[in-house]
Specification:
Layout (H helix, E strand, L loop, with lengths): L1 H13 L10 H7 L5 E2 L2 E2 L1 H7 L7 H12 L3 H23 L1 H5 L2 H27 L37 H8 L2 H6 L9 E7 L2 E6 L2 E12 L2 E12 L7 E14 L2 E15 L5 E14 L7 E9 L5 E8 L4 H31 L4 E7 L11 E10 L9 E9 L2 E3 L4 E3 L2 E6 L7 E10 L2 E10 L6 E7 L2 E7 L6 E5 L3 E5 L4 E8 L3 E11 L7 E11 L2 E13 L5
Antiparallel strand pairs: 1-2, 3-4, 4-5, 5-6, 6-7, 7-8, 8-9, 9-10, 10-11, 12-13, 13-17, 14-16, 14-18, 15-17, 18-19, 20-21, 20-27, 22-23, 23-24, 24-25, 25-26, 26-27
Helix pairs in contact: 1-5, 1-8, 1-10, 2-4, 3-10, 4-10, 5-10, 7-8
Amino acid sequence: MVGFVLAFALAAAAGCGGGDDGVSSRAAVEAAPSVLIESGRVTDEALAAVFDGESVNRAVVSAFVAEVMALTEEERLAIAADLSRRAELEVARLSGLEAALGGTAATEAALTGAWAPVNEAIAGVAPELAATPLDGDASLSPESTQPEGFAHPMAVPAPNGMASIGLLLGGMGLGLMVDPLVSSANNFTKDQYSEGTLSSGVVVSGAVEQSTLEMSFDGTQDGVAVKFNATVVVHPCPDPSGNFDMTAKIDVKTSKGAVGSNAAIDMKINGQVDDDAHIASSTTEANTQWADFAGGKGQFLDYTVGVPSSGDSTFAVNRTGGAVSTDFVRMAVLMSTMFVYMVKDKMLQAAENAWSSGRCVDLKVTPSAGPDGLDPGQVVSVLAEPRSKVDGSPTGGNVTATLKAGVQSVEPNGSPVPADASSNYTAGPEQDQSGTVAYESRSKRGVGKAEVTFNTGAPAAYLVVGGLQDWQVNMVVCDITKPFTLESPGVGVAEFSGGLSGTYSATGVFNFSYAGTYQVILSDGLGSPGTMSGTSSGQIAGQAGSGTENYVLTPAEPCE
């Protein structure tokens, strides 16, 4: 049962607020004993009312949950510490461990000593997991072979002083791991996978579709051996119907020679995401099993608690056997129930944080022009296409474009449009201006995020060389995007409208006058080499004529 106590400590560490989740607090309190908790301890009256030897009193358990969840984290930890101590000692008595050790005091000392290295190891995992760097630096631990790619998006709070009581230290460390574990792979690409040993006894692995944590520790004191194994598996990316799932399994063995016990907790969470990428509903179920192996007596307990996000919770003692005491069943019921109510919110929040980060959806944004070197006032059509990173399929849902910074505008701005979605960005009215547009898609598959910064071209200076016949030019134009003049020495001048295409007119010697259109072609946008051609017609010395001038454009130093 030690593992069960550790699991409950995990729950206490999560520290999440309540919510209803099937607990009808007013009706439950009315049906429950008047005093459930006193001085950080579950009262004997409350324990006696939990289980009558045949069935669980749902009203009492629901009232207990409501009262505990309204307390501070420190107060919850104090209650967990007391339940831990009482349950451990009762398990030791039932399994024969207490008799083998020579009494209650010796049992408590041996269990505390045996679990000390396990508590120390677990307490160190959460901060180390959060500190795992992107480059897979293994310097944090001499035994670390940390997997590449894991980020450290958040700091993990250190366990407070209350965690030093019994098994709570290990539980707090484990309870603080879920969100750092999941978020560490939020920036992974579609095909990226990483696996490795974070520290001795801790293996983490991650991909877009799954994050996994496996732990295995042991300790010994006065001949008492303890083994702790835990696995957390989170699938944070919803399927096309919006379904996601996660599991947490804890398995513990405590023994001295031929006596001891095994405990296991198996929690499963299934959830549904709505069209706006929020949790619509969830169902949590936890099964607790305990058995001893003292001379083949076959003592066991099997208990299940189910918590839907709406409706009534279920509490069921599936079976008991051997010398399992009613008091032990009562403590087990309360702790297993609290495990679900406090851990499920932590795990659900970790999953929602993951798919809300952009982990599960690739939002491809394609502008029709630019985004650099736009003409002032130019209108650009933008197509936003959200695709699942897991299977590559369209996610559906909506896309919202919002002007985040700069000029000029985006339409529609801040309003969701069905995916695949089109919007229009209008560039600033002047040269060298920028505007940043944030795009966000939301659907049952999660959230996709993208950002594009559009720029109008800075003054584009070019050396212009070329012409036609006697009309030859070799001069620098300070900005071809604005009206400019070309001069052929001794022949004449031409006035251009500016921009990458437009009109021009030329006048000069022999009373010539020509007008036409021009086109600039650049190899890679403004600032890159290119050519310009102009086709015009007019007259010279009273004679009509036409022709095409060709120029080579080479980027030049800025000028005025």
